[in-house]
Amino acid sequence: MRAEEKRKPVSVWKESDVIEGRKVPAFVAILRTVGCWWSRQRGCLMCGYNLASDAGIGLEDLRAQLETAKERYDGENFVKIYTSGSFLDAREIPMELREEVVDAFGEAERILFESRPEFVTEENIQDLKDRRISVAMGLESGTDRVLRDCVRKGFTTADYERAAFLLRAKGIPLRTYLLLKPPFLTEREAIEDARRSIAYASPYSESVSVNPVNVQKETVLEGLWRRGDYRPPWLWSLAEVLKEGKGLEGTRLFSSPSGGGTPRGVHNCLDCDRGFLEAIERFTFSQDEREFEGLDCRCRLEWKALVEVQDAMATSVDVGRYLSSGLDLE
Ligand code: SF4
Ligand SMILES: [Zn+2]
Question: Is residue 44 in some structural domain?
């Protein structure tokens, strides 16, 4: 990677988020780091984030990235600093930089970092005294078998629980990410896994984000998708999961699908994808399942039929792909 690239964040953008029920402007920066340690070992099956990292990135590169990101900051209430790995892993974000990151966004009410649970330790978070900090963990599924066989997450629900209890004891709010439809699950199993996982994670979490799988480049999952052994989830499935999981334990449930409406992301058919994605965006802020009322499309029958065919054949392959044509896999 060229020197100037190491000094640029992966991306910076603005969106909205919620703090204690209020919709607020949010600022997001993805810093380029040495990458997630687990992705260098075995890595999660669907993760291609390591493509944006570089082993040679050092403290001064990170400082330069922070400066660049700060130039775009306009006092948004919610600041999210991602690394496509773990902010709390000192190999990615050296200890001395943590405070500089927090200080850089003095006007923010809330600052969110992401971390795997192994870095949420008493010793590692004792310096996170700033009351504005919250932590997000990518649990993906509340079922250990799915974590091991379908995600290859490299940790268990017990690891998540330990970290979640510790955050609660320290008064640090937790956002949990769940995955909708890891590989090797049928569409119905994926819906059930997400439902169970929402019920499991809600008591520990201030908010739960359901992330429908997006097929990233150069991943194991991409190989399965290319040969027809995987289809990203349907928007029908995501809508069901959100409607039913809403408000459990008073936890905010939402979804911000990346790649939605494309062959690599959560999708239905070209006619209704946009309507569904808009309803999901509205639901994210209103938490009102009536946002999904009136959404109908001829593809509902196709979705239901495929769910049943997969069940009958006991297979998670993309059976619909063999029945229709025209999917443009790029
Ligand atoms: S999904 Fe997260 S934990 Fe898994 S390899 Fe990617 S960055 Fe690491
Ligand atoms: Zn449709």
Answer: yes
Per-residue pLDDT tens over the stretch 230-244 = 999 999 999 999 999
CA distance 187 to 183: 10
Tokens of 287: 């938490």
Q: What are phi and psi of 137, to 5 degrees?
A: -125, 135
- Contact in structure between 9 and 69 (CB atoms under 8 Å): yes
Tell how far the Cα of 274 is from the centroid of ligand 2, in angstroms: 9
294 contacts: CB under 8 Å, gap ≥ 6 = none
Q: What's the pLDDT tens digit per position in 293-322? A: 999 999 999 999 999 999 898 888 888 876
Check if 85 has its Cβ closer than 6 Å to any atom of ligand 1: yes
- Distance from the alpha carbon of residue 81 to the mean position of ligand 1, in angstroms: 16
Domain that holds residue 27: 3-323
Determine phi and psi for 93, rounding to 5 degrees.
Answer: -120, 100
For residues 132 and 111, the answer to whether their CB atoms sit within 8 Å is: yes
Torsion of CA 152, 86, 134, 207, to 10 degrees: -20
Cβ–ligand 1 contact at 175 (below 6 Å): no
Task: For residue 239, count other CB atoms closer than 10 A to its CB.
Answer: 20
CA 194/CA 118 separation, integer angstroms: 23
Is residue 180 in some structural domain? Answer: yes
Q: Indicate whether residue 43 lines ligand 1 (CB < 6 A).
A: yes
Task: Kindly give the distance from the C-alpha atom of residue 269 to the centroid of ligand 2, in angstroms, as a whole number.
Answer: 4
Instruction: Quickly count: other Cβ atoms within 10 Å of residue 129's Cβ.
Output: 10
Amino acid type, 193: D
Round the CA-based radius of gyration of the chain to a whole number and report it: 20
Ligand 1 site, residue 264, Cβ cutoff 6 A: no
Nearest to 19 by CA among 98, 153, 132, 116: 132
Single pTM value for the model = 0.95
CATH, residue 59: 3.20.20.70
> For residue 330, is it within any domain?
no
Number of domains in the chain: 1
Ligand nearest to the CA of 46: 1
Domain contains 140: yes
